[in-house]
Design a protein that fits this description.
Helix 1 (about 20-25) packs across helix 2 (about 30-50). The protein has about 210 residues and is of the alpha/beta class. It has helices at about 20-25, 30-50, 65-75, 85-100, 120-125, 165-175, 195-205; strands spanning about 5-10, 55-60, 80, 105-110, 135, 145-150, 180-185.
Length: about 210
Amino acid sequence: MLKLSLIIFAKLPRPGEVKTRLGSTIGMEPAAGIYAEFAEHAFTLADNLGRRGVKTYLFYAPGASAGEVKAWVGRDFVFHEQQGDSLGERMLQAFAQTFQDGGDASVIIGTDVPELCVERIDSAYDALPTHDLVIGPSTDGGYYLLGMKAPVKNVFENVKWSTGGVFQTTMGLIRDAGFECHVLPEENDIDTREDYEAYLERKSRG
């Protein structure tokens, strides 16, 4: 049986440090509360996967102590501080850590996709035995999930992070390197007031 790992990137929900685009329109305090709610959803997904043997790693942003983060998360995850100057470097380091610890396949998610479900993450793990990579595009032009069986440096280089071209650039890098990649269905990434209001509307419809 493959040793599966889940990586979550997260920050402490401090006003003015999380969901700032949303906070610029609704206030930083409410935005931090929404961030905490979305993060809890990601942690609950990890709880469900953990009951089936998936090992969860929580990589937290610099500026917080491990003790603060552990007290907030309230789970027995493996905690590490993110290392690297760019988002790509930090993700590569996180993947490398899981493989160094003996993992066979790893998937990374963030905390901006409250409609992400366990079944979607399971489908990523299911695809990895026959693909080098798996990726889930988000509606803002980025991606909400990335999975691999070994550290693949290529997919993190020369990417302009936090732009609408992240997914397309990454797919180009994957194709250029000759990797087999499984693409998951698109999910909604919630960053702005419009995103959040649309999410609430979908939620109200059940």
